[in-house]
Specification:
Layout lengths: L2 H4 L13 H9 L7 H6 L2 H8 L15 H16 L2 H7 L4 H13 L5 H12 L4 H17 L1 H8 L8 H9 L12 H5 L5 H4 L8 H15 L3 H14 L3 H11 L9 H4 L11
Helix pairs in contact: 5-7, 6-7, 7-8, 7-9, 8-9, 9-10, 11-14, 14-15, 14-16, 15-16
InterPro entries: ARM-type_fold
Organism: Azospirillum brasilense
Protein name: DNA alkylation repair protein
Length: 276
């Protein structure tokens, strides 16, 4: 890995502000992205040719397509040329985008059980780069959604992992709605099915995990607000770490109005159902 791939830096927040030399490094796979803007600016065709020459020209990337579609296309192209070996090869690459392709190559591989996919994605879910960790759960999200109860059972032990990144994966990958991904209807209807993952994380000390758990519950509250309110009340009563749980609860209920509030029924100022 080159020095440019590891040196900490402040990246551009707009694609137009990315220096030409940085963009050249990103397109050649010599440098990690530092911002979302840099990720979106990458020329996927150039990066694929540099990282997986065997797949050069195998797929056309439409810049108008969403980045998740382009990530999936690159991962699939790598898998088509390299087979399951693409996962290990791409996962060791200096470019975080290419490591993200490893997640999608794994998702594209046929014949694997969900348990096998989750075991293979663990190093990528624990990657030092924030982007790779997002691609890890996004890539496997369709497999997780298709077998949600099995996924929750398999991910429950992850909630006890020493790495906060793995604990967060268990929550983020199973969110009822999520971001940049399809919804999981079963959890929108019956979020209690997620308790095997949620309960162990109710007092997690890492804010990275707390935010994910709160967002999970905020997702659920859009369809089952009463259930979320009841769960939060229970957590506040039996929490082994009240400060951590209080932060989760406040964020979880940030958009849940208090149904019992007279002001809301009268159409006046809406009070939020938050603890003091």
């Amino acid at each position: 890995m080159s020095a440019t791939a590891t040196a900490p830096r402040k990246g551009a927040t707009r694609m137009a502000d990315i220096p030409p030399e940085v963009l050249a490094d990103l397109n050649a796979g010599r440098r990690e992205t530092a911002t979302l803007a840099e990720s979106l600016a990458i020329d996927f065709a150039a990066l694929l040719a540099a990282a997986v020459p065997e797949a050069a020209g195998a797929v056309s990337f439409d810049p108008k397509e969403g980045v998740t579609r382009r990530m999936a296309a690159a991962g699939s192209a790598a898998f088509d040329r390299l087979g399951l070996g693409a996962v290990e090869r791409l996962a060791a690459h200096p470019s975080d985008t290419v490591r993200g392709w490893a997640c999608y190559a794994l998702a594209a591989a046929p014949g694997l059980t969900l348990a096998e996919r989750l075991e293979r994605v663990r190093p990528l879910a624990d990657d030092p780069h924030f982007g790779v960790r997002e691609w890890a759960w996004l890539a496997l999200r369709p497999h997780i959604a298709a077998a949600i109860d099995e996924a929750l059972a398999l991910l429950t032990p992850w909630t006890a992992e020493p790495s906060e990144r793995l604990r967060r994966f268990a929550s983020e990958a199973t969110r009822p709605r999520g971001v940049w991904c399809g919804h999981i209807g079963a959890l929108k209807t019956d979020p209690a099915r997620g308790l095997p993952v949620l309960d162990p994380l109710r007092a997690d000390g890492a804010r990275y995990v707390q935010d994910s758990v709160a967002n999970w519950l905020n997702d659920a509250a859009k369809s089952q607000p009463g259930w979320v309110q009841s769960l939060c009340a229970r957590w506040e009563t039996d929490s082994p770490a009240p400060d951590a749980t209080r932060r989760i609860v406040r964020r979880a209920l940030r958009s849940v109005p208090c149904a019992a509030c007279p002001a809301q029924r009268e159409g006046t100022r809406v009070r939020r159902h938050l603890p003091p």
